[in-house]
């Protein structure tokens, strides 16, 4: 999943326009561009006056990338108050990710450290880790993922734990 520069610009342009429209309580015009109609997830990191807010919206087959971007902004804006005049103080980072694929074999052998993110599900707990952070090896990544999910760090070794990998592109 690699977006062209033109597609990245379309996604970023829509994202900025959607954020402004949400803040100013105006209707959001959803785009017709194909890239914004794909079934992709989004990670939004919004930094405002030194306060960083993050929201992850998983891809679903009934919602487009554009809808997921809007949903992510709506969730972030419930946590932080930004006025129209303050929009220039917002630093925005967007990462797009693919639909997670189930890993059926040994997880430590089936994902690429630094290139793929992982989701773990076990005993009602769920954790997500993106590849943008640096780890010394796969074991440290898997232990951090399990701790992120609220599990013990060695839970990745349990054969009942479910793992999914996904690719990510930061814009």
Q: Can you give the helix content as a percent range?
A: 25-40%
**Per DSSP, what share of the residues sits in E-state strands of 2 or more residues?**
25-35%
The backbone outline, from C-alpha atoms, is globular
- Helix-strand category: alpha+beta
Question: Cα distance, first to last residue?
Answer: 12 Å
- Write the element-wise H/E pattern from the N-terminal end onward: HEEHEEEEHE
Strands, total number: 7
Radius of gyration: 17 Å
Low-pLDDT parts are none
Describe the structure.
- The chain is α+β, with helices and mostly antiparallel strands and 171 residues long.
- Helices cover 25% and strands 27% of the residues.
- It has three helices and seven strands.
- The protein has helices spanning 5-23, 65-77, 138-148, and strands at residues 41-48, 51-57, 90-97, 101-103, 116-122, 125-129, 162-170.
- A hairpin with a 2-residue loop joins strand 1 (41-48) and strand 2 (51-57).
- Helix 1 packs across helix 2 (65-77).
- The two termini are 12 Å apart.
List keywords for this structure.
single chain, alpha+beta, 7-stranded antiparallel β-sheet, globular
Provide a compact summary of the structure.
This protein has 171 residues and is α+β, with helices and mostly antiparallel strands.
């Amino acid at each position: 999943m690699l977006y062209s520069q033109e597609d990245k610009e379309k996604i970023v342009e829509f994202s900025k326009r959607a954020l402004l429209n949400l803040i100013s309580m105006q209707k959001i015009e959803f785009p017709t561009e194909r890239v914004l109609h794909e079934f992709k997830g989004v990670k939004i990191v919004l930094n405002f006056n030194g306060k960083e807010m993050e929201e992850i919206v998983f891809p679903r087959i009934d919602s487009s990338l554009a809808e997921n971007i809007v949903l992510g902004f709506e969730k972030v804006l419930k946590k932080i108050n930004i006025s129209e005049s303050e929009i220039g103080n917002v630093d925005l980072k967007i990462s797009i990710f693919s639909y997670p694929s189930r890993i059926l074999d040994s997880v430590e052998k089936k994902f690429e450290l630094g290139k793929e993110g992982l989701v773990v599900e076990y005993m009602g707990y769920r954790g997500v880790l993106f590849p943008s952070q640096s780890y010394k090896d796969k074991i440290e990544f898997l232990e951090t993922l399990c701790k992120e999910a609220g599990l013990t760090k060695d839970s990745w070794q349990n054969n009942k734990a479910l793992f999914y990998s996904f690719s990510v592109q930061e814009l």
